[in-house]
## 1
Amino acid sequence: MKVRVGHLYPDYLNIYADRGNIAVLVRRAEWRGHELEVRALSVGDGVRSGEHDLLYVGGGQDREQALVALDLAAKADGIIAAVDSGVAVLAVCGGYQLLGRSYRNVDGMELPGIGVFPLETVAGERRMIGDVLLECELEPGVRRTLAGFENHAGRTRLDVSAEPLGRVVAGFGNDGESGYEGCRVGRAIGTYLHGPLLPRNPWFADWILAQALAHATGGEPPALAPLPDELEAEAHSVSAKRAETRGGRF
Amino acid sequence: MRFPVPLAAEILAARSAGRLSRLARAGGGTTVPGKLLWKLDPDAVDRLAARLPLGSALVSATNGKTTTAAMAAEILRPRLRLAHNRSGANLVSGVASTLLEARRAELGLFEVDEAALPEVAARVRPRAVCLGNLFRDQLDRYGELEHVAQRWRGAVQELDPAATLVVNGDDPQIGDLVRDRPDAFVFGVDDPRHARPSLQHAADSKYCVRCGTPYEYAAPYVGHLGDYRCPRCGHGRPPLSARALDIRVRGLESVSFRLELPEGLRDVQLRLPGLYNVYNALAAASLARALGATLDEIVEGLERFSAAFGRFERIAVGERRLLMLLIKNPAGANEVVRTIVDGGAARPAVIALNDGIADGRDVSWIWDVDFEPLIPGLQTLVATGDRAAELALRFKYAGLDPAAIEVVPGLERALDRGLQLTEPGAELVVLPTYTAMLALRQIVAERGFVRPYWESSAESAPHFSRVGSDRSLRSGDEVERLHK
């Protein structure tokens, strides 16, 4: 099966090794006999509904975020239509902020978001930096952990009715107070976690891949064949321990 | 000369602390005296620096500051007694330690941490400042690149108007500092044969610092360093006062180039490899010139120079050799990879990834390094360090056969495994992050193959610069304070 990935602004939003996440998706699809076709969607490129099964957007510094914010607004209709049609989304850090409703950066500049996620972000004085561990329940009754690293000035506040990605076990999370991290809207996930996130959390890479395959086939997310993930498990365990011993808190 | 009694007493106390710490073998005790002095009286650094009869010069950059400062020291040493933090103790406390130890020095020559530059410049009041490059580096510690660049701009504005500013014009952020200081001395590379076909993935300042439009590069050399111009507002590389022309790379052995300074044109043969060392040599030549070195002294110094601590070291271990090259951020590691591949690739390689404060706690940077060119020649990767598994994943997802990856978290065992995989007479490439480099050096020192770093730092100038490095011993509070 061919899975079509639109990678938004790889030339601007790539600060925390976002290409590592893409590499993991490409290989893990390939090892199951699927093909991931990754196309860049940068400034000036249109996003048309029906052309993608997965949209990825990475992190950037304030300057790069400001450079793409206007262009993203021009893509908003296409992206929202895609999300409504069940396209999977993974948005990390700066991309997560811009897919909310708005982001006010450290200089007080208000950047418009496109409202895929029901949240708003305002940068605070102190950056939230450190290892982080979450507990997620993406399928009812199935609890799994995500280990990563966060580095953000933005305090992200979800609407009361919004669903977070996970509960913070160690680290700051969305705003350092709520005890939650990230946001989920159907098959769309936004998170501050990089590291990059997917190499050390292979179950989550497969979950994203399965959502994208579901869109590609028009069916349910398939069960993917297990892979030898010993290295991944070891990397996850070291990262999780780091969060427990030195994760950030106010 | 007489000093206020408190300062003299503080110096005495701090020096004793350094000796005690060295006796206790606590990493050489290199920054301990400076830390103590800095705690007792932060302004003592200002007074100690003011005692240097010929003043001070500062070198800062994300990559190459240790090597650049060491090259400048090699050029200046025959003529001057230097206070030089030669092995990388580059926060305020490290500068303080160096000043404490350098009793008869005439000139201070300090490499300075990027975040510490504003404070060190304000205290030391340098007569010359050399700024080399800004790349993404330890984002968990330094924050965003823009933020560091802004603080540098502020530090430049606060410099004494008579001070000489030496800048790398090939870095857009740094070249733009010339706007505030039209008399700055600008260096850069001019040899399009060595340009990369396109900007690397890890290039950082690729959008115009003035208007945000992507730069057009006539020649990108290292990361975003090169000959750039903004097609919209016209901001481009400033005119160069010093250039490197006609560069010839000789694998892992050496690199030569033609050095053009206002005084004339000379061929220089470095005993170090890599295009990035041409940048370091240009920076050192430009700074030494600003401090009064002649063209002859510059060329002789550069050609005498062999290596800076831990950056590029060949260590004989029985019948085999270790080639140790420090990796610490994407731009620097990319150049190390390019140099290794130019030199005929690595068969077995030991790569050591630690995640201490001095390495960067966030290890995501390894995914921004272009390790891929190593893969075709790599028979076995020994992945080691505190984050060995993460490093192994980097290579697994880059397409290296998992059977060729061995994860050996302990550094000593990993080193032995690497040596075991190396043919007698051959060379084992070892790429450690900073704290892993210190630990590996300690291991080979304990086996008698290399002297501990505080001894080797002292060997060529025992009275003036017995100051080792120890970023791993940096107190967390000093780092925290600087990076806010």
Note: The first strand of chain B starts at residue 56 and ends at 60.
## 2
Amino acid sequence: MPLADPYLLPMAALLTAIGLTEIYRLGPTSAALRQGIWVVIGVAAFAATLIGLRHDYRVLERYKYIFGVTAILLLFLPLAPGIGETINGARLWIHFAGLQFQPGELGKIALIVFLAAYLRERREVLAQGRLKDWGPLLVIWGGAMLVLFVTNDLGSALLYYGIFLAMLYVATARLSFVAAALGLFLVGAYSVGRATPHVQERITDWLTPWSSKPVPCFFTGKLALRQECASYQLVQSLYGIAHGGWGGTGIGRGIVTFPNGQQIVPDQNTDFIYSAIAQEIGLIGAAALLLVYMAFVVRGFQIALKASDGFSKLLAAGLSFGFALQTFVIVGGILRVIPLTGITLPFVSYGGSSVVSNFFLVAGLMLISNRANRESTA
Amino acid sequence: MNAQLRHLAVVATVLIAVLIGATTYWQSWASADLANKQGNAIQNVVQLEIDRGTIYAANGMRLAWSVPHKKAGLTTYSRRYAGSSAFAQVVLGLDQSLGDYLTGTNTNLSNTFSQEIDRLGGKAVHGDNVTLTLKPGAQQLAEQLLAGRCGAVVAMNPKTGAVYAMASSPSFNPNLLQQPHGQTQVGRIKGTCGSGFAEGNRATQGLYPPGSTFKLVTASAALDTGKVQPTSNYYDPGYCVEYGTKVYNSSAPDSGGHEVFGNVTFAQALEHSINAVFCNVGKQIGASSILDYARRYGFYSTPPLETPASQRVPSGLYNNGSLWSPKNLANVDVGRLAFGQYKMLVTPLQMALVASTIANHGNEPTPYLVQKITAPDGSLVSATSPSTWHRPISAKTAAELTQMMQLVVQGGTAAGVGFPSSLNVAGKTGTAELNLGNIYDSWFVCFAPANNPKVAVAVLVEKQYNGFGATYAAPIAKAILENLLHS
């Protein structure tokens, strides 16, 4: 890959290193060790992708329906009896052989590959806006709703559907499509949300995390202040971020546990790792971290712009936007910009599926940039 | 497609810029607000990481201090208290209200600097130390003498306002609160009066009918306005007529009937605590005059002290549980008010302040518990300088009242207590009716030596059978005076 983008991998490595450091700091040591092993696996997957697709990654286009089906299977895998698992009210996990895995993370990459190939093929037809061409769009909308309904996870649904909308816009240049599809999503999300207590609770927690009077507690069924029950994690994580202030407490000096060693914010090293980092490195450090994400995304879009063929452009755009949107959904959830949902912060959060799928993502962007640069220099 | 890609790149960049903006909001503008939220677990741990300062008694005895614990690389501190129940309410209250000093938040500049160095170096922040005016000997004695009963003792320097003893019973070992279920256990303490609330400081937040100790306020009004002299003559038929019915004097301790004194002077009326005379004096000078002097003494306002404001209440007329300033004074039963019944409720601290005022030539001292606050390096952060709170009565009135109160001890209601004449005590008994048959609240307020007062004391013992002030409260006051004047 002599002509691949020279910035992506160092940025990915930097984010991974920050994540590993914080996971090690939060403990237990075994978690950092396991994360280290996952990074090794991720790098192996990265290398295998580069080697396997060194001639022309566009062969993937031929297998688009395999990717499509794989994406659907992975997204719905947690529903399979026996291996599926519900954690924090959302059904996003599978477990076998003692390992927990979020197949949706890999499903996201597969979905982007499928959409890039599918939209490249159909973009002219779709752009004409005939009614019969709306079929696939509606299928995908239905799929996202179904994901939302069965996994109870607003964040994942928002992420997958947002990637779809972004890629649809790039492919067709029709904002009206995007607007219509967004309207459909909001209507659907509203009605599904109404029918799903978990989603409804998340929205209430977002709008009014502090209640002045005791309200029925979602978990115990008893009366409690919302900040001591449903929005406890959100609120305590915000307290932690606020405690960091401008300069932060310093790594290792943040307050993440009670004196008895119990974590103040559960899931601190996965969903809430941003809050621990923001507390310890402060606004200066957290803003720098977010700027690395921004730089990564900007590089991704530059690759998309430079790429010559539709598939490459769509793939690079999907991967970059997916990366940005995932960061926005989890960090925005922690910062009360949007309702909180449990997904991982790319490269930084603890979690094997996240690490591996993000290394696939970097590999994809590097392959595209290598080809684009080769073509432009040739 | 490039145009769309550029648009999308802008959207993605804006999404992340929003996150930077939101982080800025929480870490700067909202930061202080969040830090002060109830239930902020992080701030609670921060507090535990501070080595709170030590609270010392006047003689250097440690009353509250911090003990370090190391766990998982984190050093936290927990609080220990002198293992006696004598100091519970006052020290726990001060531990809370002096938090800014004890945690070093509110401190002098050199200490702020060294704290910042400590914080950057990852060392514990050390708070300031506090030295109180409490004298452990008197405090523990007061607690022992009250033990088994409900009540309160306040002893203070009448000239400076320095509080030597402030005891409240029932009490508890404050270390109990640090243990699991300790709070519940303390909450269950009811005491012999049946309405325990051991955590409350009865000296400053307990409200009791003052009984005849209130005659000091009525007499202040009568003498200070010049309407009555100590030598003014009154006739006591054994009762006073209120709203057309006879209100009798209390029964003599040794006889079944009501006391009848006949022709007496005003001074003798105080000496023997004759309700009928005070009832008529009240009617003579009027409720407005009595309430005016009560206000001059600080009734109707919360007495200043370093304990939490929630642990101090104003004395005054109370109607249905809330402080009452009557608009129409015709509604006030002035006869009963004059001898301390009716709706008048007072705190033991307020009565100690009344005694201090009389002892201090009519100047009411500002009471204080904190002698000084010092930084961990020993430098002085602040020291209390005595001040005057109010000037309710003239020096002449104070001198007249002092003489009348000496009569109480020499030949009046407190003659049988056995105060040694060497102490030269001036005092006033109180036996407050509770409408509980022969069960009374027993009061004694006094100061000594009368010619050069060094200590003023107010003692309240709740709900005693035949609880005459001279029987239950005065002996406690005597022991406290002896302890403080002989040491």
Note: Chain A touches chain B through 59 residues (CB under 8 Å).
